[in-house]
Amino acid sequence: MTRESNIDDLSSDEEAADREAPTLALPDKIRAQLCDHARTGTPEEICGILGGTFDPDQSRVSTAYPATNVADTPRTRYRIDPEEQLECFERLEAAGEEIVGFYHSHPKGPARPSETDVEAATWSDRSYVIVSLEPVAVGSWRWRSSDAVDGESGGQFERERIVS
């Protein structure tokens, strides 16, 4: 399998900023598992939960838990089945793992968050891994919440460096 990256040609300033970016340790075996899941789920988006060791700036994935996408329009959105999500959280806890983040695919889109992804993100400091199939790439982003404004919470995605 070709190794996917979320870093394009970077200037020296961008390289320095990348070294300071949050980091997600995503073993090659799990990266391949996510890509395979995305391929088998095409043309719909696939989704799942990542377990391992969580830190707001440096997390490590040890397990990927595929889940059913129950979105109304699964070709362009994802929503993890709530019952499966709860069961997965219980399995993570029983295994002594933490919730590192979530993953989903963009079968025909880039490996970066869409506007829909921004609107749906809620888990502060967690990783959101996105698998693109055209072209094949894996990107990761941390959701950084901002204080509520007029009763609505907000935030933004911060690009995350992926290491093996």
UniProtKB/TrEMBL annotation:
GO molecular function, one term: zinc ion binding
Domain MPN: from-to ranges: 24-152
GO BP, sorted A to Z: proteolysis
Keyword flag Metal-binding: yes
Region Disordered: start-end pairs: 1-25
Keywords: Hydrolase, Metal-binding, Metalloprotease, Protease, Zinc
InterPro entries found in the cross-reference section: JAB_dom_prok, JAMM/MPN+_dom, Metalloprotease_DSAMP, MPN, VirAsm_ModProt
Matching PANTHER family: CYSO-CYSTEINE PEPTIDASE (PTHR34858)
The protein, known as: Mov34/MPN/PAD-1 family protein
Organism lineage: Archaea, Methanobacteriati, Methanobacteriota, Stenosarchaea group, Halobacteria
